[in-house]
Amino acid sequence: MGIPRQKVDERLRVAGIEEFGGAVGALEVPNPRTLREREVLIAVKTAGVGNWDDIVRAGDWDVGRTPPMALGVEAAGVVAAVGAEVEDWSVGDEVLTHPVPLVDQGTWAPWLIAEAALLAPKPADVSWERAGAFPVPALTAIQVLDESLRLTPGEQLLVNGAGSVTGGLIVAFASLRGIHVLATAGAASRERVIRAGAGTVIDHHDPDWAAQVLEATAGRGVDAAANAARGGTASALAAVRDGGRLATITSDPPDAERGVRIASVYVRPDAAQLEVASQALAGGRLEFELGASFPLSQADAALARAVAGRGGAVVLDAVSD
Ligand SMILES: NC(=O)c1ccc[n+]([C@@H]2O[C@H](COP(=O)([O-])OP(=O)(O)OC[C@H]3O[C@@H](n4cnc5c(N)ncnc54)[C@H](OP(=O)(O)O)[C@@H]3O)[C@@H](O)[C@H]2O)c1
Fold first, then answer.
1. Residue with the nearest Cα to atom 31 of ligand 1?
2. Which of 78, 88, 89, 278 is surrounded by the fewest CB atoms within 10 Å?
3. Is the pLDDT of residue 1 over 70?
4. Is the bond preceding residue 101 a cis peptide, omega within 30 degrees?
5. Average of pLDDT values for 47-63?
6. CB of 232 shorter than 6 A to ligand 1
7. Residue that terminates a domain, selected from 224, 248, 264
8. DSSP H helical segments within the chain, as ranges?
9. In angstroms, how far apart are the furthest CA atoms of the chain?
10. Cα of 37 to ligand 1 centre, how many Å?
11. Is the predicted pLDDT of residue 112 greater than 50, yes or no?
């Protein structure tokens, strides 16, 4: 099956940039090209918006395409056509994806061409809004925990910036794995972070919050810390025990000290991880809050909301409807 007839316009209206560093606005791009081997065409239902999209906009994250282009690196939607040698997906399948490197346009578009290998099935009881905003923060959280920190039972984890979308998911996935989590969060996020599974929540507005973590760990410090607060990695380091581990997702790693291993984590696509993560989202087992949804025509406002970081995931809704 090809593209439904009523969806075929001469040009495709997307939200993106004319040049790196330029403002986000409506763009017209050619309709999706013919699919190549192992590619899938997705009718995008929802597409997530994060401050990482501003990094793409600035030209500081190479996602494999150059402008003019639709922005967006995560989406949920319905398979509308499959290329040759696609065996795992059929027209009508509901999927989510972090499709980087982009093979055509970004996800802020009614149609997306993605590599079939980068899709995961959308669980039926996960809403389109949550599914579209889930791939990047979820994969980041999983990769911090399972590939960088590799916690073992009984270890204590600090999540600095647990009020953020990604930090909240680090707390939630760690809690599901039975790890004891200490977290920093402001008053507005405190209850959500506790629901995500944090045993101890310390207000990051206290300049001495790292000292409170030391106090809560009998002066020893946590075995491992994940930093999801912009500019917060050095403070998180102060709360880690000698010889512990620190993973940061905010590109501000300090110099190592006291034998603490410090790693910067940059999200990458992994369909198997995304499938397992989205199964945890199904059935309400995972705390993951939406902050705001916008129509595709207001992608600029959606990005401004995400960059402002007021908590909760941001999503473009009803993109191809
Ligand atoms: N490396 C990667 O692959 C990767 C992937 C995803 C995200 N990131 C980065 O990770 C960071 C978080 O992204 P996000 O979208 O999840 O964030 P977000 O949801 O926009 O986070 C905003 C929240 O962080 C909390 N916060 C703000 N300043 C803080 C501070 N100084 N200390 C502790 N918490 C603070 C606030 O909550 P409360 O004050 O209410 O607690 C705020 O509501 C961003 O820098 C983003 O670019 C990197």
1. 229
2. 88
3. no
4. yes
5. 97
6. yes
7. 264
8. 51-57, 128-132, 135-142, 165-176, 190-196, 209-216, 233-238, 271-281, 299-308
9. 66
10. 38
11. yes
The CB of 298 under 6 Å from ligand 1? The reply is no
* pLDDT digit string, tens, across residues 274-285: 999 999 999 788
Q: Could you identify the atom of ligand 1 that is nearest to the CA of residue 143?
A: 3
Q: What is the DSSP string of 202-263?
A: E-TTSTTHHHHHHHHTTTS-EEEEEE-STT-HHHHHHTEEEEEEEEESSS-PPPP-TT-EEE
**pLDDT per position as a tens digit, 153-171:** 899 999 999 999 999 999 9
Residue 276 is assigned to a structural domain of this protein: no
Considering the domain architecture, whether residues 64 and 111 belong to the same structural domain is answered as yes
The pLDDT assigned to 2 comes to 46
Query: What range defines the domain where residue 236 resides?
Result: 136-264
Q: Specify the pTM.
A: 0.96
- Is 299 part of any domain? yes
The reply to whether 157 and 222 lie within a common domain is yes
Q: Is 227 in the pocket of ligand 1 (CB under 6 A)?
A: no
Position 318 scores a pLDDT of: 77
